[in-house]
Each structure stands twice: as C-alpha cells, then as structure tokens.
C-alpha cells in the first residue's frame, strides 16, 4: 500500500458524503432516547469537565468522556453535581446519573444532544482520515458515510464510536510511520495510539498491533532491531499521552508499592479484567448465559453487517489473494483479525459494538481491492452493491442500533439481544405512542416511564415477581414491552413475558419495543399439576401465574395417568411439554401450550397447557368387552357406584383405560391391569392409578396408562381390568357377574 495523495480538484467529490453522514447522524442523535450506558458516560464527562473528577471512570479511560462533556458547561439546566442528594454519600455511578437525569431542571433531550454532537463531529474528521488513507477513494467515502452500525454508535455519547475512530486513526498513523519512519510520523503515531489506549481499555490491543506491524517492515539492510527501535520510540509518547489525558494524575493504589501515574487507567484495566473473568449475561439464538460463546461474534458479524459489505469483503479477499497482494494489505486485515480473535476469546458477548473497531479496516480492505475491478461488469456490480448499501442505510434511519441485514432481519429478535437491537433507544417513540394509546409498559431502558406519565409493570429486581400481572394469562389491554424483557435478559425472571413471544405485535416502536393487544384473558375452574414426583409450582404460584384464585387444585402423575376435571376449562402444569407425548391425538386436539418457563436459579422449568373443555371420545375407543361369565357388554359400564369404564385403546406395550367418576369413591382405589394369554396365569401385571381417588369428583374423567414390558407377547390375549381398594385388596363388584372385565386381544 503506497502513500496516497488527494488531488485538490477531487475534494469536492466527497462533500455530498460528508453532508449525508452529518444529516443522518444528526437525525439519529435527535431521535434516539438515552441508551442504557449513556447516562453514566455523560456523568463521567460532566464530572471531568466541571470538576476534573476521575472517580466515576470505573473501567473506562477518560478520553471519550472529556469529549462527551466538552459542551455540557453550556447547558444551564444541568444542576451542579455537588447539589445531588447522593453526591457526598456514594460513588455509585447509576445512582448519581439517575439523580442527574431526573433532576427537576435537567433538560434530558438537550443534554443528550450536547453530549452526542462532539462524537458526530469527530466522526466527520475520521471520515476525512479514512478517505485520505484510501487514496481519495469514493468507495471508502460511501462505505464510511452510510455504515448503519457505525452510524448507530457514532451518534451516541458512549466510548464505542470514538474507540472505533481511535483504532482507525492509530492504524493510519502506524502505516505512515512504517512507510516513512520520521520523528514527525512517529510522534503522530504515538499520540494516536495513546489516545486509543485512553479511549477504552480494549485500546491496549494497539500496542501489540503496532509492534507486530512494525516488525513486518522489511527493507534492504533492515534488521528486526530497527523495527523494535521504532516501536520503542513510540512508548514514551504513548505513555505521556495517556498520562496527559488523565490530567497528570499521580496517586497511590493498593496493588503497587508506590504512586502510579494515570492510576485510574490501571484501575480500569483491573476492572475490565474482572468483568471479563466474571462474564456478562448475554442472549444468542434463544439462549441466555454469562459464560459466553466462542461463535457469538461470528453470528453477530454476519447478521448485522450489511450484505453488500459482506459480498464486497469476500470479493476483496479473493482479489487480493489472486493479485498476490495479501501481504501488502496487512495494515487492513491484521488489526481486524486480531480484534475479532480477542473479542471471541474473551467471550464478553455484549454486542456487535465490541467488534465495531474492525469496520474501518474492513472498509479499507475493500477500497484497496476496488481498483482491481476494472472489467465493466465488475464496475456495474460495484455500483449496484453500493447503491443497495446506501438505500438500505437510508431506509433504516434513524433506527441504526436495531439494524440487521436482509438475511437475518426476520429472525433478529430471536437471534441477538442487548445493544445489538435493544439498548433502550426507543423511549421517545414510546412516549409519543402513549399520547394516543393507553398502554401498559415494561421498559428495559434507563429512563423512568412513571416520570413521563406511563403505566408500568413493576418488576421486582430481586425476585422477578410482577405484582398484579399474570405471566401466563395477561389481563386485557395493550402492552408495550422492550425486546430485552421479551427475550428474558436484564430481568431476574427470564420468562416473565414468554406468553407474548409467539404472538404478533400490533406495532413496533423503532426496533426495540413491541406492542401487543390482549383482547381477553382465558378463564378456568381448575389447575391440574403433574406431580412426577413433585409439582414445579405451589398452588398459590399457579393461581398467580394464570391470574385467578379459588381454583380447584389437582395433583396427578402425568407419566401414567391423566385427569380431565368435571368443571370445564382449566390449566395443566407440567414439568415439560414431553410429559404429554403419550396421550392419543384425539384427546389433545382442543388444548394449547400457552406458556413455557425455562429453569433458573430460583425455579424449575415447566409448561402450562390450557384445556377449554373435556375432550369427546371417538369411535377409536370402542372395543369388545366381556364379563367374567363370558357375556359381551357395551361401554360405558359402571363398576359399583365409583366409576364407569368409557373405553380403551392399546398398542405394543401400553393399554389405556378411560374412566368417568360417578360418585365420591373410596379414597384408596386403584385400577386392575392383568395381561393374559390362553392360560389362567397372568403374563404381566400393571396395576396403578396416577390420579389418587381421594381427589375424585363426580363427572371427572381419568385416563390410566398401563405399561407392559416390550418382551411380553400376548397374541390373542386380553386385559383384565377393574377397580379395587389397594389397602384391603377388595375388588369393586360389577353387578352380579364378578369384579373384573376382559378387554379385547392386544394383538389382532
């Protein structure tokens, strides 16, 4: 890569790109409400600029915050920090930032705008640097101006946009220094690397990147020692830059025997190391964990990077390899690969923003390869891809945080979470929507909906409990729910809103708040718990889950029995949906799976089924039945005053008998199940009753499963069944004919 120059006559060609970027960035900055991280970053910037106070940095070097706070002294609505209630009490950043933003005088929208504008202006300067690095490439100008993920974060008062610029600027100055190792270029490279380190802790990666790139500078009579000396020349400049940005701070720290310059920087390194070791709760493809995934950023990159960029990147790699310029382009691909590898290794899977510093190098690689696409059809293809890229970016404005490419867009809400799609950015849209619609809100962002007159669902942060809300049977109304809460992140109870997941929203506010209309709630008379061996819910928990009280509570073993209560509609609580897999299809056509809860540290997994009415039997339940004296009878047939047999089915190993309760029976009943062939001795016995007769009420239906070993064959055999008292062994008589029935052969 040779040192490019910009011809003055070409500079006006780039003006439209700068104007477009500035317009898109301003539009986004005005439209987006405070994201989850911005208030703390703004607090840091305000404390630095107004008081020179570094105590809120906590894991973040201060360079970005000095820029974020640059214009805040002009905002008269901001109260002095020492007037906030918690200022002298705590150094807790979220607490003080909430007090700052909720203060009676604070104009939140103006504060946000003033904090974001310096980042946008830096983005304009960065665009000029990247175009300069690419030799005045219009391809680079288009890639920079329309990049949705770049626009998402260069319009926020956070560190992510600025550290992306810092990495790109450092890469540019290292490239210049490597190609022309003058003291002036070395000074600029040292300053740029120092700014990168002082912007975000990940900036420390620029030290090995710069060293390794310098080591690859081979010239005649050149030794590795020359490259090492070049790198060593940078170190004091880098160190002084970091110290300068920290205000020449010098103070004691508990982990060193002497005061350290820029001690806050070393504190930040240790804080982030602890964060990486402890992990961070993340969402990927429906899973939630703090352990992370090695492939998280692979999926994020291919899901959120625009398809035209992916296609152009693939073409650039192929082109440079074919032209044998892969090594010559190492200033572009090496930093990007190292950044991606480190991000994947740490598994701190917070979002695409952690690999955002790759983008300038991706753009550079494409711009570097583009002059080789000289064939007319390649030029047309390049033009079409860039037009597609620009159009998709314009259509996405201003909702760039929730950008996903065309392939992944339909599954975005089940693919990634947090800052990839929902960072609290759409609160202003929610406030505007609520002016014409009465909504119940569950919002995962920073601002307090109550302060804006919104009705909210108050989630207990310790238990995840939501008072007056039935998780599995919401009351009628319109609900506006943040996607993070729908996915189950940032809340204690990850499936608090699982009921809504398979419903179609009536509106989407930006890309992160889904609005649902609940026309009516389900009603029921009972809840039947599968206690195999224990129910996953207590009765009062189950009633709170469905929003009804005073329900009949039943307990049964769903691996061998099923109960259809006599009171119409109701719910089943199952340890898992698979517990119902053995039931015949005709008995399950009317019910629906309405809620699934995944296991957490506080509660087990379970599934709720809703049954609107007991099922009606079909002809498939008919069969030959005979009494002990050999007479054939027609079902249903009463066994004493306790119950009557309505029908049965069988397959290779299971017999199913279906009973209806007639009157209050003995509390100790069980069901007889003896399998016979032609001999009088049973082949196997499978007595049992999974729904204790002590719970029976008149008109209940009970389905019992009698399972026999696979090895038992009963060709032309039959099943003897009936009821008996398992404490005495006494059988319930069937009229004057005996105490058991014989059901048809199990093998036809």
Tell me about this structure.
With 748 residues, this protein is α+β, with helices and mostly antiparallel strands. 36% of the residues lie in helices and 15% in strands. The chain contains 21 helices and 25 strands. The protein has a six-stranded antiparallel β-sheet, with no helix packed on it. The protein has a five-stranded mixed β-sheet with strand order 6-5-7-9-8. Strand 18 and strand 19 form a beta hairpin. The radius of gyration is 35 Å and the shape is elongated. The termini are far apart.
Placed side by side, the strands forming the largest sheet appear as 17-16-25-24-21-22
Average of per-residue pLDDT values:
90
Shape: elongated
- Count of helical segments? 21
Strand content: 5-15%
Secondary structure topology:
Layout: H1 15-31, H2 38-51, H3 63-68, H4 93-101, H5 108-133, H6 138-146, H7 148-153, H8 160-179, H9 183-197, H10 206-215, H11 224-245, E1 250-251, E2 260-261, H12 263-278, E3 282-284, E4 287-289, H13 296-304, H14 307-322, H15 330-346, H16 359-369, H17 376-396, H18 412-415, H19 427-434, E5 440-442, E6 455-456, E7 477-482, H20 483-487, E8 507-509, E9 513-518, E10 526-530, H21 539-546, E11 552-556, E12 561-564, E13 570-574, E14 592-597, E15 606-611, E16 625-626, E17 632-633, E18 637-639, E19 643-650, E20 654-661, E21 669-676, E22 684-685, E23 701-707, E24 718-725, E25 741-743
Parallel strand pairs: 5-6, 5-7, 10-11, 10-13
Antiparallel strand pairs: 1-2, 3-4, 7-9, 8-9, 12-23, 13-15, 14-15, 16-17, 16-25, 18-19, 19-20, 20-23, 21-22, 21-24, 24-25
């Amino acid at each position: 890569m040779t040192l490019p120059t910009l011809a003055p006559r070409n500079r006006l060609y780039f003006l439209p790109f700068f104007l477009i970027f500035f317009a898109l960035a301003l539009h986004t900055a005005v439209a987006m409400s405070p994201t989850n991280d911005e208030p703390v970053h703004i607090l840091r910037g305000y404390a630095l600029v107004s008081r020179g106070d570094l105590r809120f940095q906590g894991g973040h070097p201060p360079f970005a915050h000095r820029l974020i706070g640059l214009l805040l002294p002009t905002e008269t609505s901001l109260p002095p920090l020492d007037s906030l209630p918690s200022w002298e009490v705590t150094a807790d950043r979220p607490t003080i930032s909430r007090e700052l933003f909720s203060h009676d005088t604070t104009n939140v929208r103006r504060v946000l705008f003033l904090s974001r504008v310096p980042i946008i202006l830096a983005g304009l300067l960065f665009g000029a640097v990247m175009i300069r690095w690419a030799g005045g490439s219009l391809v680079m100008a288009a890639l920079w101006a329309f990049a949705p993920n770049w626009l998402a974060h260069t319009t926020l008062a956070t560190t992510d946009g600025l550290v992306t610029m810092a990495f790109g600027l450092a890469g540019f100055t290292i490239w210049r220094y490597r190609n022309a190792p003058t003291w002036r270029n070395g000074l600029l490279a040292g300053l740029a690397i120092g700014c990168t380190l002082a912007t975000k802790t990940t900036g420390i990666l620029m030290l090995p990147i710069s060293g390794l790139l310098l080591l690859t500078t081979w010239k005649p009579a050149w030794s590795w020692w020359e490259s090492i000396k070049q790198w060593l020349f940078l170190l004091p400049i880098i160190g002084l830059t970091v110290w300068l940005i920290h205000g020449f701070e010098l103070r004691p720290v508990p982990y060193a025997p002497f005061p350290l310059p820029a001690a806050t920087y070393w504190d930040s390194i240790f804080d982030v190391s602890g964060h990486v070791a402890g992990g961070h709760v993340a969402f990927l493809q429906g899973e939630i964990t703090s352990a992370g995934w090695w492939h998280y950023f692979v999926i994020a990159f291919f899901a959120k990077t625009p398809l035209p960029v992916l296609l152009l990147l693939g073409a650039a790699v192929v082109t440079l390899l074919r032209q044998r310029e892969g090594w010559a382009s190492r200033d572009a691909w090496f930093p990007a690969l190292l950044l991606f590898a480190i991000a994947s290794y740490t598994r701190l899977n917070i979002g695409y923003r952690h690999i955002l510093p790759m983008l300038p190098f991706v753009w550079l690689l494409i711009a570097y390869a583009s002059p080789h696409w000289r064939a007319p059809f390649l030029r047309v293809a390049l033009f079409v891809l860039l037009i597609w890229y620009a159009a998709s970016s314009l259509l996405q404005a201003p909702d760039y945080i929730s950008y996903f490419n065309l392939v992944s867009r339909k599954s975005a809400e089940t693919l990634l979470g947090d800052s990839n799609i929902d960072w609290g950015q759409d609160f202003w849209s929610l406030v505007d929507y609520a002016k014409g619609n009465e909504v119940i809100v569950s919002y995962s962002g920073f601002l307090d909906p109550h302060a804006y007159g919104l009705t909210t669902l108050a989630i207990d942060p310790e238990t995840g409990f939501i008072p007056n809300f039935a998780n599995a049977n919401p009351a009628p109304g319109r609900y506006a729910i943040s996607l993070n809460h729908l996915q189950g992140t940032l809340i204690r109870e990850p499936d608090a809103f699982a009921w809504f997941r398979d419903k179609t929203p009536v509106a989407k506010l930006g890309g992160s708040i889904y609005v649902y209309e609940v026309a009516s709630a389900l009603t029921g008379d009972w809840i039947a718990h599968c206690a195999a061996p224990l129910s996953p819910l207590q009765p009062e928990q189950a009633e709170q889950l469905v929003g009804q009280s005073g329900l009949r509570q039943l307990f049964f073993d769903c691996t061998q029995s099923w109960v259809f209560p006599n009171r119409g509609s109701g719910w089943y609580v199952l340890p898992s949906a698979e517990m119902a897999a053995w039931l015949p299809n005709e008995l399950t056509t009317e019910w629906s799976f309405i809620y699934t809860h995944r296991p957490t540290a506080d509660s087990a997994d379970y599934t709720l089924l809703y049954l609107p009415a007991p099922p009606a039997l079909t002809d498939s339940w008919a069969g030959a039945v005979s009494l002990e004296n050999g007479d054939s009878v027609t079902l249903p047939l009463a066994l004493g005053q306790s119950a009557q047999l309505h029908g049965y089915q069988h397959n290779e190993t299971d017999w199913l008998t279906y009973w209806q309760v007639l009157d209050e029976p003995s509390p100790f009943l069980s069901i007889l199940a003896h399998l016979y062939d032609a001999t009088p001795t049973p082949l196997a016995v499978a007595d049992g009753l999974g729904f204790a007769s002590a719970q029976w009420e008149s008109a209940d239906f009970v389905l019992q499963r009698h399972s026999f070993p696979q090895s038992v064959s009963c060709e032309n055999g039959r099943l003897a069944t009936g009821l008996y008292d398992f404490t005495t062994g006494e059988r319930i008589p069937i009229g004057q004919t005996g105490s058991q029935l014989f059901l048809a052969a199990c093998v036809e």
